[in-house]
């Protein structure tokens, strides 16, 4: 039986992971669950799965959570607090597998700690890899950690790679990756009306049940931009070898084009339990709870090129990865600040790309060879983005 730590247990990926764990109690034991501030959901998860540790990052919620656990049937659970505790539970000796599902830059340090500790890292936090790039991949290589992608697209690409393939290496026979995207809720919305989009409209994804931040990223296609950068690192390919394809049915999760003309595609119903179960069972397979795909019900599948005028965030992601250095970090940091401002109704939907582009213009693609440089670039870009937002709302 393997011990698992779930970073971000109360988010959609964490909830789906626990659903898969519950189907295979003979294979996985929950060692640690973490949450930012959703203590109601974390409490229910603790009752159901009885982990050894529970982490609440938001200090203002810790005392109440400790009281509830102390008065519960699972009073022996050790409750930890603060962001440093995330690294502690991700590197516990009895943790074999770490599900890295914290959204945003907050997931970088605990995910990197798990990689350095040689854990099997199930990577759902794309920002950790986007920010730290080769630092993260080098940590995996140095420690002997196993890195398995959880994003449906990257997991699909991994499944389509040759037998024995290891992330971080080049599959010599693969010449191109076709990275699929749903196109989000505004694929057909007139461009001139996008400035009036509300946060509630932006988070209403047509296919996937995701958190608010990720849903906005999907609506701007920054989510796909971050996945593009992640794919370059995971599969050691150049940006020009990765083509984004809008596929609104979300049945094909991505494809790999080989030198002999073969194109392999991974298909399935749009349910994150499929890639989660694939990674948890790898190199074998077990039940995920996902209904079988009814290809006759699907009926047909559509594909189209993304319009970079409609989705400027995707263009900015291509520019960031081609520039290299700290630019992907700057892109990600500015995006997080811009999306937060949009969700708080401080800026317009179309301002998100404006904030990111203006932020990137104030940086050069300097070296990102150390964690300190990456974290500094992240902080600097956030400050620049905040200043730009002030000029937009003035």
TrEMBL record:
Pfam families: DXP_redisom_C, DXP_reductoisom, DXPR_C. Belongs to the DXR family. 1-deoxy-D-xylulose 5-phosphate binds at residues 126, 152-153, 182, 205, 218, 223-224, 227. SUPFAM superfamilies: 1-deoxy-D-xylulose-5-phosphate reductoisomerase, C-terminal domain, Glyceraldehyde-3-phosphate dehydrogenase-like, C-terminal domain, NAD(P)-binding Rossmann-fold domains. It comes from the Bacteria. It is an enzyme of class 1 (oxidoreductase). It catalyses: 2-C-methyl-D-erythritol 4-phosphate + NADP(+) = 1-deoxy-D-xylulose 5-phosphate + NADPH + H(+). Its cofactor is Mg(2+); Mn(2+). Mn(2+) binds at residues 151, 153, 227. NADPH binds at residues 10-13, 38, 125, 127, 211. This is 1-deoxy-D-xylulose 5-phosphate reductoisomerase. Coiled coil: none annotated. Pathway: Isoprenoid biosynthesis; isopentenyl diphosphate biosynthesis via DXP pathway; isopentenyl diphosphate from 1-deoxy-D-xylulose 5-phosphate: step 1/6. Its EC number is 1.1.1.267. Residues 147-235 form the 1-deoxy-D-xylulose 5-phosphate reductoisomerase C-terminal domain. GO terms for molecular function: 1-deoxy-D-xylulose-5-phosphate reductoisomerase activity. Residues 4-133 form the 1-deoxy-D-xylulose 5-phosphate reductoisomerase N-terminal domain. Keywords: Isoprene biosynthesis, Magnesium, Manganese, Metal-binding, NADP, Oxidoreductase. Catalyzes the NADPH-dependent rearrangement and reduction of 1-deoxy-D-xylulose-5-phosphate (DXP) to 2-C-methyl-D-erythritol 4-phosphate (MEP). Residues 267-383 form the DXP reductoisomerase C-terminal domain.
